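Lab manual, section 2.4: Encoding a predicted structure.

Procedure: take the sequence of the chain (507 residues), apply the prediction step described in section 2.3, and record the output as structure tokens. A sample record is shown.
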Amino acid sequence: MHTGICRMKIMLLGAMSLAGAAPGFDVGAWRLPAEASWREAPGRGVTLCVVVPRDTQPGYHCAEMEVDLRPYAGERATLSCDARAEEVTRPRDEWNGVKCMLRLESPSQGKLYPGVRGFYGTRDWRGHAVTFDVPADATTGTLCLGLQDSTGTVWFDNVKLEAGGFPKRVKHPPPMTNPDPVDRGHPDVERLRGCMVAMTHDPEGLETLASWGANLIRFQLVRNWGKISDNRDLAEYRAWIRGGLDMLDKTLADCERLGIRVCVDVHVPPGGLDEDRNMAMFFEREYADAFVDVWCEIAARFKDRRALWAYDLINEPVQTRPSPDGLEDYWQLQRRVARAIREIDAETTVIFSVAAGGSPEGFRDVAPVDVPHVIYQVHMYDPHLYTHQYVTHAPDAPVAYPGSLNGQPIDKAFLRQKLQPVRDFQLAYNVPVYCGEFSAVRWAPGAERYLEDCIELFEEYGWDWSYHAFREWDGWSVEHNEDRSVNTLAEQPTTRQQVLRKWFDKN
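Recorded output:
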């Protein structure tokens, strides 16, 4: 493979072939800020180094180079790099810190920023990658390497933009004609409409949801959500899971009395997450096997409970690189678990989740599995800059819905476009879909309209759904008002609560 002469190693490959490389770029192709220079790195030769001293105002400190995207237009591509960091401070927004990103603008999709997940701290050399779809009308982009909203030192090497990547895109067939009715696992109920709940036994909360008309809860087995290198001690993890199952046992008894169905969600997997937030069980056999064992235990204990609707295998799987030889990837491992469950419980619905954190885009990468009574799950938090404002990031001004973001309108048409990969998958294979999570933080302007538009689309498409979340964190609470500085319950039902209850009334 040809390597361009750019002091550090950088390869830009054509979209249709991995056999050849584009010509190399000389040093003059880069725009370097004052903080960036070419430096010798031990064992690496000369690489790009960005140093932002601690007394420097954090901001955007990145080397940039223009990239011709026409060879990749309409294709899947992977941006990857090796990076080494020293004392990089924690940024305000989770996607900043060490930055390896492609900035581009598409007439059809507006401004896009695919990049490896930001990180901080001190780390030795390691590889990072992100796979994304290049819009068909994209022509040029800007490669950005450096630090944003952080101080510290970072080195880059082996920067690549390659065709393809993991996971591979699946070409779906056209929509089925005259499809048969699908099995959603609740033949006596037209639709399941409800909420996600915390890992606790809350009889009063369940009574409230029943009084609102909800007929579903998604019960999450969760702790330390998002924590890196957690859940590594399998004996301790299994003991914790069993404690959660004891609470689930009591919750199922209440739900049987109240007429509420229950979806059991393993929210954090054995082995936890690595520093790139990949799930360890896709790369380490002991955690993959433990994941299967956990689900067999759950199925054996609860298979005969009347309120049990579904086994939700794993929440928002993340895998950005292939599994080692002999190990299953995120889709194959879920299939192994589902088959093991079917040896114990032949009927209860099993829910599969796509990678890319359960986002709609992940449905471009999978085909249905050969397991009976399966439903496919999506989570809807698009646009994230709207739904999670002042949660994962702090915008200069509140973002409203409907409105615009990065020069693109955000409205119901935008939501429909974002959900289209899920709809295409549903129609191509005539399979049931469940939206297990959707929300907008309570202080997001227009959150009630966002929820209404989402639910209208779910109902149009015939999907079951559960709102995130009921009495879990006040930021998502429909019982709290829209004032971010106030953490007390609203005196009157909020407009967001009214939206949910309007649709629960249809139950």
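Check your result against the sample. The first strand starts at residue 4 and ends at 6.
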